[in-house]
Write a structure and sequence with these properties.
The chain is of the alpha+beta class. It has one domain (4-210): Mog1/PsbP, alpha/beta/alpha sandwich (Protein Transport Mog1p, Chain A), CATH 3.40.1000.10. The protein is built from 5 helices and 10 strands, in the order E-E-E-E-E-H-H-E-H-E-E-E-H-H-E. It has helices spanning 57-66, 80-91, 112-117, 173-177, 181-201; strands at residues 4-9, 14-19, 23-24, 35-39, 46-53, 99-109, 126-137, 145-157, 162-171, 203-204. The protein has a 7-stranded antiparallel sheet with strand order 3-4-5-9-8-7-6, sandwiched between helices. Strands 1-2-10 form a 3-stranded antiparallel sheet. Strand 8 and strand 9 form a beta hairpin. GO terms for molecular function: guanyl-nucleotide exchange factor activity; small GTPase binding. One of its GO terms (biological process) is protein import into nucleus. Keywords: Protein transport, Transport. InterPro entries: Mog1 (IPR007681), Mog1/PsbP_a/b/a-sand (IPR016123).
Length: 211
Amino acid sequence: MSQVREQEFFGGAIKGVVPQGWIDSSTLREVPDHQELFLSPTTLSTLIIEINQRVSEEEAQSTLSTLTHQPPIPVSGPDSIDQAAVLYHLHDLCDEGDTMQMLAPPQRVDIPRISSSAPSGSASVKAYRSAVSFTTPKKEDPTLFATVQCHSLLVRLEAQETDLLIFFNVPREEFEKEGNEEGFNMEVKVAEGIVGALVETLEICDWGLFV
């Protein structure tokens, strides 16, 4: 995995890691208040941290019906609503005409630093890791497509009515143009490593952020 550095998000209310040398886009342009965006200095890859309204059970279930045109996605058992919420957030990234292919279905993971710091009386914190590929028709030629691989982490904060999201996006096109499949695979490994590192290091320092 690439080297990482510790990073504060949302004014220090949340802490985690980002790849060493990546650029905080807020130093270049305005970023929405609910989002932190980091840019690779060498590729078009991005790392996004978002705070969103918690997806309701009804919204999560409705997502499954809207994905009937996609290949079957395994969602079952006690985590089925939370897994469907992952799909809701991922599907929300799609534009009209996009297709989404599941590479790694949502799997529950332990998120130790957030779980241990949660306010007393809070419902258990649940987190889910997954990976998908988005395919988008090109505007100049709809017979051609651009593909982005997205590795994600969803942390569900029930008591705070919040979904905390991590997206690491790796566009394939720049590597395809260079015939650099190895470079793409290496970038995917960086994405997997950073999401894994955030599972271990992500920490909420100020729970008042969600009030």
